[in-house]
Design goal:
There is one protein chain. The chain is mainly alpha-helical. The protein has one domain. It is 68% helix and 0% strand. The protein has helices at 18-44, 48-53, 57-67, 86-96, 103-123, 126-129, 131-134, 137-142, 149-164, 168-181, 185-197, 204-229, 234-239, 250-256, 268-276, 281-306, 313-329, 336-339, 341-346, 349-355, 357-360, 366-383. Residues 1-11 have low confidence and may be disordered.
């Protein structure tokens, strides 16, 4: 985490130096995830089929095999059909070529390793970018599984770079691809749009280019759903089903008493879920630790948007993307909204990190405190169910 000469107050690098630092971040991120995987397989003696069925990975692989004609649509469970097809499309070609299922993990970890390099390309802040190699723990855990978070953050950051370069059509296309990855992608797509077109009067051409480019992948999502499921909004309908109709044990579903699987009143999941159902004390404390951070960053974001000082569009997009994502994650359903709150926080991570720069960017020594904490919590999550 040291090397080039940097501004001690900002960690900023000259524009032409980002590639070398980015390569080091890429290598460090891959090595760290390889260490976590080696620890998992050494101490837990996990098998590949079991590992690839953990978290959401099994559903992503199952959907990819259906999209690419490897398995019939009847092989999917109702819960599998909640998956948006963006991530299965990104790796399914490898399965179609006959490569083994673990290839998905190689693609996922490689994308995760790109994230800090892309953040460095966007911001030029070397100290801040190193956090995305390992922090927060939910990001490290998610990016060590073959699930969609790495692809999602790569597309978010590519979209922000496009906003920075005023490439309106490209930023629109990438915003639409985020919706193809997950419904919450609409938060970042809206941030791209508003940051570029809300404050300044522009001709209709850039707006039209953005909207048309964004519509293409979204229409593709509807068409693919219609072909595969016969329902253009299959994922929304699946998530809207009662908890008992999904993968939640009936007793827990009854205790939560919520008619929808993934939607709820603001903060309902944080206030009621740990008291309606049994949640380990450490889990409750861990999730609740995110709440003051979220509220502090939201306050900081609102203050930033109210400032009279002119701000570049890409910086506004970072702030808006975090705000919109935060508004959505406090309104998710009672089960996943609480159990996965730390993971949903990761979806707004580029904006959260940017809003934290006054505390983190000038203090590289925080790495030596947060790095072991993040790795320890990640190992605890990965190995927590070891016998």
């Amino acid at each position: 985490m040291s090397g080039e000469r940097v501004n001690p107050k900002s960690g900023a690098l000259p524009e032409h130096n980002w590639l070398g630092s980015g390569a080091r971040m890429f290598s460090a991120a891959l090595a760290l995830r390889a260490f976590l995987l080696a620890s998992l397989f050494l101490f837990k003696r996990e098998s590949w089929p079991l590992f690839l069925s953990n978290s959401d990975a099994g559903s992503f692989i199952a959907v990819a095999k259906v999209i690419f004609g490897i398995s019939p649509v009847g092989s999917l469970t109702t819960y599998d059909t909640r998956v948006f097809p963006g991530w299965p499309l990104a790796f399914g070609w490898a399965l179609k070529l006959g490569l083994p299922d673990p290839t998905v993990l190689v693609i996922s970890c490689s994308l995760a390793a790109l994230v800090p390099a892309l953040f460095l390309r966007l911001t030029g802040d070397r100290t801040l970018s190193w956090y995305l190699v390992y922090f927060p723990p939910a990001w490290l855990v998610a990016s060590t599984h073959p699930i969609s978070e790495p692809a999602y953050l790569v597309v978010v950051l590519l979209g922000l770079v496009a906003v920075k370069q005023s490439r309106h059509g490209l930023s629109g296309a990438l915003g639409g691809c985020l919706v193809l990855l997950r419904a919450f992608g609409a938060a970042w797509a809206a941030a791209f749009f508003v940051s570029q077109f809300s404050k300044n009067r522009r001709s209709n051409s850039p707006v039209a280019a953005f909207v048309f480019a964004a519509a293409v992948p979204v229409v593709g999502l509807f068409l693919l759903n219609w072909v595969v499921y016969g329902n253009p909004v299959q994922q929304v309908h699946t998530y809207g089903r009662p908890l008992v109709a999904l993968n939640i044990p009936p007793a827990i579903a009854v205790d939560l008493n919520n008619p929808s699987g993934h939607w709820g009143w603001p903060f309902e999941h944080l206030l009621l879920t740990p008291w309606r159902t049994h949640v380990p004390l450490w889990k409750t404390a861990y999730i609740y630790a995110h709440v003051p951070v979220l509220l502090l960053l939201v306050w900081n974001a609102v203050a930033s948007l109210r400032s009279k000082v002119p701000v570049e569009a890409w910086k506004t997009a970072l702030v808006l993307g975090f705000l919109y994502n935060s508004a959505l994650i406090v309104c998710t359903g009672p089960y996943w909204g609480f159990e996965s709150f730390d993971r949903y926080f990761v979806w707004g991570l580029p904006g959260a990190l940017w809003l934290s720069r006054r505390w983190l960017s000038a203090q590289s020594r925080w790495h030596w405190i947060l790095f072991p904490v993040s790795v320890a919590l990640s190992l605890r999550s990965l190995l927590g169910h070891a016998g």
